[in-house]
Amino acid sequence: xxxxxxxxxxxxxxxxxxxxxxxxxxxxxxxxxxxxxxxxxxxxxxxxxxxxxxxxxxxxxxxxxxxxxxxxxxxxxxxxxxxxxxxxxxxxxxxxxxxxxxxxxxxxxxxxxxxxxxxxxxxxxxxxxxxxxxxxxxxxxxxxxxxxxxxxxxxxxxxxxxxxxxxxxxxxxxxxxxxxxxxxxxxxxxxxxxxxxxxxxxxxxxxx
Amino acid sequence: xxxxxxxxxxxxxxxxxxxxxxxxxxxxxxxxxxxxxxxxxxxxxxxxxxxxxxxxxxxxxxxxxxxxxxxxxxxxxxxxxxxxxxxxxxxxxxxxxxxxxxxxxxxxxxxxxxxxxxxxxxxxxxxxxxxxxxxxxxxxxxxxxxxxxxxxxxxxxxxxxxxxxxxxxxxxxxxxxxxxxxxxxxxxxxxxxxxxxxxxxxxxxxxx
DNA sequence: AGAAAAAGTTTCCAAAAGGAAACTTTTTCT
DNA sequence: AGAAAAAGTTTCCTTTTGGAAACTTTTTCT
Lengths: 208, 208
Description:
Chain A is an alpha+beta fold. Chain A has helices at 29-39, 44-51, 55-62, 70-79, 84-88; strands at residues 100-103, 109-112, 116-120, 130-137, 154-161, 163-168, 174-177, 181-185, 190-194, 200-207.
């Protein structure tokens, strides 16, 4: 079991925790870079020396006249020792008070995979601490997975209907019926198969 | 220089990263993007449609033949809904803990109040990021509450059975049926009453 | 204030990126 | 297996980027 999973995809892939999904806000990269350079007390010349980029190039980037290539961005971030999250995420100082997002039954964002049929909930809200989703478990056999599912954070699972077997590293498999739940560290390999007649429906919540 | 190998399926964590200082760290962007696309089950054509980029461009990026501009990267991350900051960020080191706690239906720790009958789940585990509990909603009138319920963190609620009205500050009350859910900031005043014949049963999860 | 230096912008051009279409490889059908 | 379709790559060409140097603006000196 050393292969990277290709057939199953965790729904968190579809959602970015830090970025809006429906909200496509163009990041003012140049403006931000200028602020950073200023705050480091650097001139374009000094910045140029540190990054190996031409003074003119830096100027044009800061003034949004050109869109730097990935290569250039790497030189920038390496040279100035800045990290990207700081670059893209920070100005979002929105107070996390008063958000609310209702998701009606079966109205979440669908995301089918070979083994699960995911329905992402509360996708209108971004920057959430938790990511909730329902999953219809179609997998019927352990062998449908090539590798343990494993990711950062903690996970809570509740069986909404049907019956499943919950496999995880370090533990014996356990059968879970409607109403049963399990809380576990998601970096511990885990996977689920449905063992009831109908495909099982579960609620899953992840927090990192 | 230790290279961290991720066998995880989170796209944001798939980027390998060196702690190199002077040398420009060659992040295998193309390779990762290809893995991400594959794991999303997309062809270049579909990816092209989603991102608005030419098939040929995507191919060249994936094969490290060109270094995409920031503009292109934004189209990519928006179209495929992945997260730029995390593309660059060092993968979080997974701490290999392996906690697991199964709670059988109705076997959680009971905690009754005048308005709710709570059943705390996964109480064997401490220091959890999330606190899950089921609640039987006995309140039938919002007058039974003397004040908004209000606490730190974010909350997710799913109606397991019955029907409730969800009241919250800043919003109109909303009726929720079995299967409906709501995600909200818990410092926003909130309360719930049951409006179905039988007391409603809900699942609640809090994260701070 | 005016000259000199430093900082920043713009120009010009070589180099690289991005798109359309031709081409090749892989998969899906009989 | 062979044909057809789908997926992926490469070519060719236009647009854009990135760097050297010229140019302009701002700051720092007498």
